[in-house]
Design brief:
By secondary structure, the protein is α+β, with helices and mostly antiparallel strands. The protein is 43% helix and 14% strand.
Length: 84
């Protein structure tokens, strides 16, 4: 995976993030994808679904991640810094 994290807001918060949050944010920072499905994040992080859902909910509350819908009406997630 290639990551472009230099100008992303969450990088400044790295020391305060737990391991699961870091993994999810790195998966969302993969420059091959602007948006990721829950399935894609789970595959990239090897975390349990419940853990990823919990982390995503927290990151959405903190305005670091934004959910949306794909053309297939599947929920997708993207970094606010990259999709706004």
């Amino acid at each position: 995976m290639a990551y472009d994290v230099e100008n992303l807001t969450w990088v400044k918060q790295w020391p305060q993030l737990n391991d699961d949050e870091q993994l999810v944010l790195l998966a969302l920072s993969d420059e091959r994808f602007q948006w990721r499905t829950l399935k894609g994040i789970i595959a990239a992080t090897a975390l349990d679904r419940a853990v990823v859902e919990e982390v995503l909910a927290k990151l959405i509350r903190e305005k670091l991640v934004r959910p949306s819908f794909s053309r297939e009406r599947e929920i997708i997630y993207g970094l606010v810094d990259r999709i706004s």
